[in-house]
Amino acid sequence: MLYTEEKICKINTPLKLKSGEILESYDLTYETHGVLSKESDNAVLVCHALNASHHIAGIRKTSKELGWWDNMIGPRKPIDTDSFFVIGVNNIGSCFGSTGPASINPKTGKPYGSNFPLLTVEDWVNSQAIFADFLGIKKFIAIIGGSLGGMQVLQWSISFPDRLENAIIIASTARLTAQNIAFNEIARRAIISDKSFCGGDYYSENTFPNIGLSIARMLAHITYLSQDGMTEKFGRNLQEKKDYSFSYEIDFQIESYLRYQGEKFSHKFDANSYLLITRVLDYFDPAAEADGDLVKALEVVKAKFLLISFTSDWRFSPSHSKELVAALLENNVQVSYSEIKSEYGHDSFLLEDPEYHELVRVFFSNML
C-alpha cells in the first residue's frame, strides 16, 4: 500500500474574490503522487467534490485513512502514477487543512467563522492556478473531477483554456437546477436553525451544530443514492427486530444507516464549510456570464473532453452531461461521452466499475 503525506502551500499573494472581497493570504493543503517530469508536462489535477479533500489516494501513516479515489489513482490504475504526476488540493473554504472558516483570522486572532467570505468555483480555480505556478506547472496534461469537481474542470477550461490539454468531467453539470438548489437550502436551514450554530461563531462557544449538520448530511446522502440501490441494500428490512416498535426510534435499516452517516459526518466536517460549499454549488453557472448561452460561454475552450454520466444518477442526471456535450460540439470541441449503466446513483463516480474505469484508463493512455 502506498503511504502518503500532506503538504502545505502558503500563498501570500492577495486573492480578489468574485464577491469583491479580498483574501490577503491563504494556505492550500495538498498531496502528490508520482513524479513530475523534467518538462513538467505530465501533471494531472484532481478537483474534489463537496465533502472530499486533497487525500485522493494511498493511505495516511497516522490515520490509516484511505484516499477517497484510491480505486482510480495509483500505479497501474486508470490514472497511472507510474506515468503521471497526480495532485490533490483541498480548496479554500473547506476544512481539511486549507484556509477556511475554522482557520484563524490573522486580523483578529480568532477563527474566521461567519466572517469568512463567500466563494465561487471561479475563486477556487484562480487559487488553483496560483498553486500550479507554485509547483512550476504551466499547463496540466489533464484536469479531472466528479460532481462539484467536474464543475471546477469546466471552469478551468473557460478561465485558463491554454493551461490544460484534457478535461474529464464525471457525473456533473453546467448549472444546478432549482431542485438541487432547494436541497442545498434545506440543508443550510437545518444547520443555521440548530441552536448550537451561534450565528456561525460556535468555535468560541466550544460547541458545534451537530444536529443540524447531521440532518443536512442525511438529506444529501439520499440524493447521492438511487431508489433501486437503496431498495437492493435495505428494502424495508427492520433493524435488529421482528416487528415495529410503535415509536419514533429506529425501526428500519435505512433509518439506522442514515443516522449513522449523519452522526459520523457531523464530527468530521465543519458546518460553516458545508454552508459555504453548498453556496459555491448554487452560484456556479458559466452561461450567466454569456447572457445565459452555454454555447457562447464555451467558445474559448481548447481542451479535449471526456464526459461520463450514470443512468441512475438523479442528482446530476445524464441530461446534464448531454447538454454540456451538445454545447461543446457546437463549438467544434473534441469530446467523447459515455453513459454508464449503474444502480448506485450519484455516488457511482466514486465506485469501481470495469466499464467506467476502462474508459478513464484508455483516455489517459492516449495522452502518453
CATH C-level category of the largest domain? Alpha Beta
* C-alpha Rg (nearest Å): 20 Å
The CATH architecture of the largest domain can be named as: 3-Layer(aba) Sandwich
The major β-sheet equals: 8 strands, mixed
* Range of helix content: 25-40%
The CATH homologous superfamily of the largest domain is termed: Alpha/Beta hydrolase fold, catalytic domain
Element-level helix/strand string: EEEEEEEEEEEEHEHEHHHHHHEHEH
Fill in the CATH topology of the largest domain. Rossmann fold
- How many structural domains? 2
State the total count of DSSP E strands.
16
Write a concise keyword list for the protein shown above.
368 residues; Rossmann fold; alpha/beta; 8-stranded mixed beta sheet; Rna Polymerase Sigma Factor, Chain: A; 33% helix; 2 domains; 17% strand; two-stranded parallel sheet
Structural features, described:
The chain has helices at 121-135, 148-159, 178-192, 210-224, 227-233, 253-266, 271-283, 294-297, 318-330, 354-365, and strands at residues 3-4, 7-11, 15-16, 22-23, 26-33, 43-47, 59-60, 73-74, 79-80, 85-89, 104-105, 110-111, 142-146, 166-170, 304-310, 335-340. By secondary structure, it is of the alpha/beta class. It has two domains: 3-175 and 287-366, Rossmann fold (3-Layer(aba) Sandwich), CATH 3.40.50; 180-279, Rna Polymerase Sigma Factor, Chain: A. The protein has an eight-stranded mixed β-sheet, sandwiched between helices. α1 (121-135) crosses α2 (148-159). The longest helix is centred in the middle third of the chain and has 15 residues, at 121-135. The protein is globular and about 65 Å long.
